[in-house]
User: What shape does this take?
Amino acid sequence: MAGTTSNNQRLIVAGLTLAIVAGGAYYVGRVYPPRGGVTEGTIAPADRYRSSQVQSSDVGLGDTSVASLMQTDAFEVMVKNPGFRALATDPGFQAFAQQNPGVLSAMAANPKAFAELTSNPKAFAQLVGGASQLAAQSIAAQNASSQMFAQMVIASQFARASSAMGSAAVGALATNQAAIAAAGQTAKALSAATAAAGKVSQATASQAAASQATASQATVAQAAAALGANAAAFNTFASQPAALAAMAAHSSAFAALANHPAALAAMASDAKAFAAFSGNPQAFAEAASHPSAVASMATNADAFAKLAADAKAMSALTSDSKMFASLGANAAAFHILATNSAFSSKASQSALAAMATNSQAFANLANNPAALASAAHGAAAFQIQAVAASFASKGLASQGIASQAVTSQGLAAQGAVAQGVVAQGVASQGIAAQGVNAQMGPVMAQYPMAAAAIAMNSQAFANFGAHPQAMSAALSALAHNSAAFQSAASNASFASLASSSAFGSMLTSPSFSAAMVRN
Assistant: This one.
């Protein structure tokens, strides 16, 4: 009996020893050497709130979205912002953020558009209720503005672009300083990004200069057309300049992945895991063929199996093994981008395809991530100005305002001087033809920028309006915190945080509450 007890004791001691050794090895393996991707050529992040403080109740197993969001520079900036702190601790706003991430993201991306509207819940509700109608009304203006934008950037002369487009409503942009500034910003940014692509070989000085100038013009032309046609998607990408630059540098590979959005989202979410395939793309092909056996693919096994069966996509990926390294080197940016539902949308797929179609142009632009992101933001700003000008003219026309009032009182008050809108052109559109009802018209005229933002994010706002009680509570919370919203949204970091689907969950996490107390 004593011998049996002694053996049992030995087994227990041996088991405890093994557990301690295994635990120590796990700890050492995670901490030494420090985990991380390639850091060469990157900027060291600011000291900020550390994920070790994030509690287990904040996120589900394998979900680090909240922890990652709280590790960003944007969080470090906003946690000290008085307006943000007031918003973040309001239960009504917290519920709104959790239930309507798409709406909040659109509002944060267009803070000036919603600055006044948040204090007018009735008008806000009217525009939300007409989201589908606004979307239909915006199509013509969006299409026209895409062409006009490219022409403005390329020619740097608004008069030529305006005369090429015959639209009276979009013609309101002729003297719209904000729109002109947006196009100018894009032209300047694209030129700066192109200059960063490097020098051409000096065969002869004159030939090299001419060649470089021609290449620069072609790059700007191709990029401007792509940006103008996919403004909203590029604006989403531009929220993470490093990720945008990586996609621009490896456009064919990312365009191939865009046809398999679930696989792309999984790779972006866990970029460091996929960086291991950078030296052996064939290993990726093999792994994708047996996704259930690979930890980083198992959760999305069907998506990776379909990707593996797509010969064209796999060819693009195996031909650009550096794409995997680029994913790992910009893991944080891709992870945040992956939390934005717009990243996996059809619009993003079209934008990635446009980059692949103009691969050389975007490869050149990838050398200057900040300039490329600035160009993308400029394209989005121009598009919303175009739609807003169209809405303002339609709204005022629906009220029967005389042409002089349209020019001097209406659009001028909205910051979009409409000298380019001739009375005959506005009148000829007709209320019925435009589909603007008597109730919607005045609100469109008063808040054209907000109406444009709602139109360009119509699905999110339509879903918001489909739940009247929740919408009413949310609008009341926004009205109560109107000044706080304006203060927070005036900082670009707010849009970076609010575009993440994890933002709402973050606001109610214990770790966020602790961070608010410490700061």
Q: What stands out?
A: The two ends are 62 Å apart (CA to CA). Residues 133-202+387-434 form one domain.
